[in-house]
Amino acid sequence: MGRFIKKSNHKDIDAMMLAEDILQGSRISLARGITLVESNSEHHFHEAQKMLEKLLPETGRAIRIGITGVPGAGKSTFIEAFGSYLCSKGLKVAVLAVDPTSSLTGGSILGDKTRMERLARNPKAFIRPSPSGGKLGGVHRKTRETMLLCEAAGFDVILVETVGVGQSEVIVRDMVDFFMLLVLTGAGDELQGMKKGIMELADAVIINKADGANEIVAKKTRGEYNRILHFLQPATKGWETKALMCSSLKETGISEIWDMILTFERTTKDSGVFSDRRRLQMKEWIHSMIVDQLQMSFFHDTRIKSLLPKIENEVISGTRPVAAAVDELFNVYYQRD
Ligand SMILES: Nc1nc2c(ncn2[C@@H]2O[C@H](COP(=O)(O)OP(=O)(O)OP(=O)(O)O)[C@@H](O)[C@H]2O)c(=O)[nH]1
Ligand SMILES: [Mg+2]
After folding, report:
1. In a domain, 281, yes or no
2. Range of the domain at 255
3. Which spans of this chain does the record mark as coiled coil (predicted)?
4. How confident is the model at residue 2 (pLDDT cuts 50, 70, 90)?
């Protein structure tokens, strides 16, 4: 017993010391802190939460930017150019990723580091590959907490990259202040077929690869996007989502994008929309974690696990209505013995 207390005290000091070092801007401690947050162990979870509590007052000052787009749109190349530009302006930039496939591939950003070679070497930049999920809602929580750690470590801009598949773009929209969609030139048919939903999440549509012979097509594409955006519900109250062009390879149009983000920040901070969104995001974060926990607790319940196949069969064979089946499952679930 005595040993246990001693051990747990020792660990407490560790988490606190780690927090101190992160506040001092130590990159090694930041990496260790993120590893702690990403760990799937129960014990590490509690240590990480202690560390976060200490860091919370020093978080929230960065501008959080989400970047999405189909594979090949040029997200990594854009982040290399954009991130390097921001560093050259004296800003500290952290790059994180939400990768819905990361548990299988180990995170695309990792392989991408070659595409962000210059940024990866920049002492003002910090690149972290996507964490693997572990349990339900895991990636979601880990990325948000990693973002907070980076802010406490003094990063001014957080870039969160995600491939625009499944629900990942919605998840990222919910954790950033400004969200941009990277698209290709000459979208034409793609533009027609594109999910309107994703455009309604965006604060900017960036037409990438506007270089060489592509530039003329890019201008046309920009016009098409602007026409469509005009009819869509804007993602942010009081902000008109517009299409811009850039070349991540030639590094043109990059400063215009940053200027737009600064205007966005000023406008939404003045109107209160910026802080309203952050408050709402915190509320939604709590709610989504509650839902995740409930779901996990329900499906991991041994009584539910043994009863569910039978009930499913009854519903499928048409001998029992769905609502009655669910009702019975919950009666069993809530029975405390
Ligand atoms: N000409 C031109 N090529 C570009 C530009 N940006 C990216 N590319 C090229 O497009 C290809 C895909 O770029 P990536 O940055 O890997 O695209 P991505 O969106 O990160 O792709 P995934 O990680 O697979 O989702 C690469 O061959 C890049 O060199 C650009 O501005 N101009
Ligand atoms: Mg990429």
Report:
1. no
2. 59-269
3. none
4. very low
248 lines ligand 1 (CB under 6 A): yes
- Among protein residues, the one whose CA lies closest to atom 32 of ligand 1: 209
**69 and 127 fall within a common domain:** yes
Ligand 1 in reach of 164 Cβ (< 6 A): no
Token pair 């009702």 in the structure block, residue: 327
Q: Please name the residue whose Cα sits nearest to atom 8 of ligand 1.
A: 74
Nearest CA to ligand 1 atom 14: 74
User: pLDDT digit string (tens) for 166-183?
Assistant: 678 888 999 999 999 999
Q: How many CA atoms lie within 13 A of 264 on its CB side?
A: 25
The CB density around residue 162, as the number of other CB atoms within 10 Å, is 28
What's the half-sphere exposure (Cβ side, CA atoms, 13 Å) at 183? Answer: 30
Q: Are residues 77 and 93 both part of a single domain?
A: yes
Residue 267 tokens, joined: 């406008």
At CA 79, angle to CA 77 and CA 80, rounded to 5? 65
If asked whether residues 157 and 16 sit together in one domain, one would say no
List pLDDT tens digits, range 220-248.
999 999 998 999 899 999 999 999 999 99
Q: Are residues 21 and 163 in the same domain?
A: no
Distance CA 292, CA 286 (A): 10
Would residue 89 count as lying in a domain?
yes
Q: Scan for tokens 């919370």, then name that residue.
A: 56
- 208 in the same domain as 163: yes
Counting the structural domains of the chain, the total is: 3
Substitution candidate for ligand 1 out of 68, 77, 80, 109 with most atoms within 8 A of CB? 77
Q: Is the CB of 69 under 6 A from ligand 1?
A: yes
**What's the CATH number where 26 sits?**
1.20.5
